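Contributing new records

If you add data, match the layout below exactly. Sequence lines come first and carry their own label; structure lines follow with theirs. Keep one chain per record. Anything else will be rejected by the validation script.
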Amino acid sequence: MKKSPLKKPKTIVVHDGLFHTDDVTSVAILSIVFDRQNVCIIRTRDEKIINSAKEDVDSFVIDVGGQYDHKNGLYDHHQRDFQFRIDGIKPSSVGLIFYHYGKKLIQKITKGISTDVSKDAVDIIYSRMLENIIKPIDLSDNGLYKELEIFVANNKEALNLREFISLMNPQWYEADPKKCDERFFEAVAFAEMFIRRFVEKEYGVVKAKEVFEYYAKLYNGSRILVMEQFVPWKPYIKNYPLYKVVVYPSVKNQWVAEAVQYNGKSFSFPKNLWGVEKDQLKALTGCKSIEFVHGTGFLAVFDDKDELIKFCHKSIDLWQRT
């Protein structure tokens, strides 16, 4: 029986010296897509090495080389004639890598969670990652700081991977150039973990919709949504403006009631209970299983679900009269 040929490692050539979020995250994405053990990373500005990699079909040249050519694995964005745009934004190297490999990345990560991930789910996660991680890096790396400020102001869920990666660079007083390489690989490892956790979380949000809709229809018309199983509900609650509180189980076998935050006036639990000690809470409310009311009034925790639901109804009635 013939043995399968060994997979040839993918070589990634990227600039040496101080690193940036776009080159670090590009390497992290490709390391996940092609498996870290099958990837060889070379940090250099040596034109001979870069030009040699350009001729190799199994190589990627990222953030150096003066060319963007996906078919040949070239992903630089610094050249004068670079005109490519993604949703109107000039991409950095990671914008280019994500444009071509983002969906493969998501499929690779979610394959480890489920064997049945729909194309729609991949598309949703791709769009979320583009908006919340990739575009801010693109704007920053291209020096479009005013545009970045506006973008982040309009997108409260944008994540700031940029500052953390920047912090991982050696400081000016650390003269040893080897530290740049050491820190670079630490930064890549962090970016890989960051990306994996983001995709896993977003996959959870997508999968939660079906469960959420089930409970939302079950309690349709009520002011309180009760979920017997916790799933991310905040992305979907805006379609149900009648709900004032969501009740769900906690990891400590307790029950949590959380106020729904709308743009207008949002419900909160009675102010005289905010941040009060448990024994005093029991005396004030007459509730035997009450454990906690948050210091800002948006959250309450009980040991007993039914008592919590009754408490929520009374609290909402009181709130609506004020």
